[in-house]
């Protein structure tokens, strides 16, 4: 049974479809369904978007985009920080949010909208079928437009930019969406809808990214440059972020790195796309890359630069609303020396027997 009440509208007397009233109802519902924050952007803010990232290519009659933020628990980063429990961040802070919790919320809110006669497209994660790669380039021989003027399937609406255009926060130097609530510690799901909703203003609160470059210094793969920027105009706002080495990031966040020239590969951590055997970096304690969790949750680096270092910097500055009694980093950062013997390896006892 659908929960429509006496009228399939957005309040006691809102059958005139007042966008302000409808926006208030949508926000209350989103928060009640489990989103930690919600903002609304009007479709005109995407004017000039690249065709492969243009929401109107998916829904030509789209009027509003609803962006919801889902916090990554600070505690989900604790085990990686201590070097003892890595799977929780990938499972609960990454894949579980992206592929389980967030889709349920955006689907339920989309049902709420469609029960009232408006179309809604729930997008709880990026499409694994997207036609562009992580650098925005079309994949060769992947797909083709079905008609002139249409994008190649599948479209990818950039979720962090959607968060910015819906007023949730700003884009930091690391290219992460930063919010006044959680800093870099959230994932974003969106809904495209033809429901007219009053938009929120673009974020204009206190500066969140002060270009401290903590992300640059802490990224274990050196994937975030200090002085190479991408500049963009988003809804009339000039925005810039680092020209992140996405291929390097893809490798680094798995805990892998290429052996230096002439260096033996060591443990066969993972075989890369070009056939090269990768070795574990000093930010991974694993001999082999662990299996994926919830499809793509394999963030062995634990977002060391783009999330953990950024979060600690923002917490020290006191700019976040989600505050804690204790600082996040309480011990010296760890690293793994892969050139040293494994202290837990099986060794031969003096009498020739094997002991652990």
Write structural notes for this entry.
There is one protein chain. With 356 residues, this protein is of the alpha+beta class. It contains eight helices and 13 strands. It has helices at 19-33, 55-58, 78-82, 87-114, 159-165, 214-218, 246-252, 304-317, and strands at 37-42, 64-71, 120-123, 170-171, 177-178, 186-193, 229-234, 237-242, 256-257, 270-271, 277-280, 347-348, 354-355. The strands form five sheets. It has a four-stranded antiparallel sheet with strand order 1-2-6-3, sandwiched between helices. Strands 9-11-10 form a three-stranded antiparallel sheet. The chain has a two-stranded antiparallel ribbon with strand order 4-5. α1 runs antiparallel to α4 (87-114). The longest helix has 28 residues, at 87-114. 37% of the residues are buried.
Task: Name the descriptors.
13 strands; 356 residues; globular; 8 helices; disordered N terminus; four-stranded antiparallel sheet; alpha+beta
Rg calc: 23 Å
SSE succession: HEHEHHEHEEEHEEHEEEHEE
Largest sheet data: 4 strands, antiparallel
Strand content: 15-25%
Low-confidence stretches: 1-7
Tell me the overall shape.
Answer: globular
């Amino acid at each position: 049974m659908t929960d429509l009440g006496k009228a399939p509208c957005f309040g006691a007397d809102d059958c005139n479809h007042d966008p302000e009233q409808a926006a208030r109802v949508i926000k209350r519902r989103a928060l009640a369904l489990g989103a930690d924050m919600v903002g609304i952007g009007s479709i005109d803010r995407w004017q000039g978007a690249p065709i492969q990232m243009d929401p109107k290519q998916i829904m030509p009659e789209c009027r509003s985009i609803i962006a919801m933020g889902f916090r990554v628990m600070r505690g989900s980063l604790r085990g990686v920080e201590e070097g003892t429990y890595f799977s929780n961040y990938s499972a609960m802070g990454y894949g579980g949010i992206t592929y389980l919790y967030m889709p349920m919320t955006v689907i339920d809110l989309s049902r709420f909208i469609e029960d009232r006669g408006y179309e809604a497209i729930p997008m709880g994660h990026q499409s694994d079928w997207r036609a562009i790669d992580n650098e925005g380039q079309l994949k060769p021989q992947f797909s083709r437009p079905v008609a002139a003027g249409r994008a190649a399937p599948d479209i990818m609406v950039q979720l962090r930019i959607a968060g910015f255009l819906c007023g949730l926060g700003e884009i930091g130097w690391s290219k992460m969406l930063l919010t006044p609530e959680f800093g870099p510690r959230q994932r974003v799901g969106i809904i495209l809808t033809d429901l007219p909703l009053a938009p929120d203003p673009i974020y204009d609160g206190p500066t969140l990214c002060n270009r401290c470059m903590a992300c640059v210094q802490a990224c274990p793969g050196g994937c975030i440059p200090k002085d190479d920027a991408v500049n963009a105009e988003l809804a009339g706002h000039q925005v810039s972020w680092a020209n992140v080495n996405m291929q390097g990031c893809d490798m680094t966040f798995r805990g892998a790195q290429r052996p230096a020239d002439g260096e033996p590969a060591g443990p066969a951590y993972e075989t890369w796309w070009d056939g090269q055997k990768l070795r574990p970096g000093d930010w991974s304690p694993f001999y082999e890359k662990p299996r994926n969790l919830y499809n793509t949750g394999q963030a062995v680096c634990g977002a060391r630069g783009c999330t953990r270092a950024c979060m600690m910097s923002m917490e020290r500055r006191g700019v976040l609303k989600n505050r804690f009694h204790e600082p996040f980093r309480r011990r010296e950062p760890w690293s793994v020396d892969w050139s040293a013997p494994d202290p837990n390896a099986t060794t031969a006892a003096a009498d020739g027997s094997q002991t652990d």
